[in-house]
Amino acid sequence: MKNAVRPAGAALAAFTFLAGTAACTTPSAPESPPRAVSTLPRKTHEPGPPSEQQLSDAATAALTDSDALSDAGTFVLSAAGGIDGSDNQSQIEPGTRLAVEAACAGRGSVTLTVTSGSAETRRRLDCGDTPHAKTFPFTTRADSIFFAVDRGAATHGGLAYLAYRRPASEHR
Q1: Predicted local confidence at residue 166, as pLDDT
Q2: DSSP classification of residue 128
Q3: Is this structure's pTM higher than 0.90?
Q4: What residue stretch is flagged as signal peptide (predicted)?
């Protein structure tokens, strides 16, 4: 019996050794690398100032809907964009009675000058966060109408204006 125990003990020792070795060499899931913790203060993303296009869209929204004017057959012209480059000229019949609407969004102020032949009208527009349209009558005196914009030195914004034929009930 002594001879039978030795091979069983040797087999048991060999099995234990191999099982231990296998357990030590069995690949396990990789450990996650340690997470870096930032000690820097977080930067908050502050949006920059609105673009001229966004300001122009805000100014346009303050005006009468040009589609409705077009459907009524009274629409003449409109323009919108950054303040610089807002000058515009269009052909029109002399003696046309118009309503001109203009609005400016942003900061500062602009002067809108409308000219047709000897007729000229100037309107100062304040550019604000919430633009308000100014409306004024204008009668053409030539076959073209010209819109010119002068801005203050610190003015930044978007401008929109439109002209439409005044209803006969408003002619005086």
Answers
A1: 82
A2: B
A3: no
A4: 1-22
pLDDT of residue 24: 46
CA 91, 84, 119: angle at the middle one, nearest 5?
40
Alpha-helix residue ranges (DSSP H) falling in the chain: 2-25, 52-61, 66-72
CB 12 within 8 A of CB 20: no
Q: What is the pLDDT of residue 44?
A: 54
User: What is the mean pLDDT for each group of 10 consecutive residues in the chain (172 residues)?
Assistant: 50 46 47 46 65 94 92 90 85 95 96 97 95 96 95 91 82 55
Q: How far apart are the C-alpha atoms of 97 and 101, rounded to whole Å?
A: 13
Distance CA 150, CA 54 (A): 20
The residue assigned the tokens 């913790």 is 37
Q: What is the pLDDT of residue 165?
A: 93
Residue 169 region, left (φ>0) first, then alpha (ψ -120 to 50), else beta? Answer: alpha
DSSP for 68-90? Answer: HHHHHT-EEEEEEEESTT--EEE
Using DSSP bridges, classify how beta strands 75-82 and 134-139 pair: parallel, antiparallel or unpaired: unpaired
CATH architecture of 52-166: Sandwich (2.60)
- pLDDT of amino acid 31: 53
Phi, psi of 78 (to 5 degrees): -150, 160
Is residue 105 a contact partner of residue 158, using CB atoms and an 8 Å limit?
yes
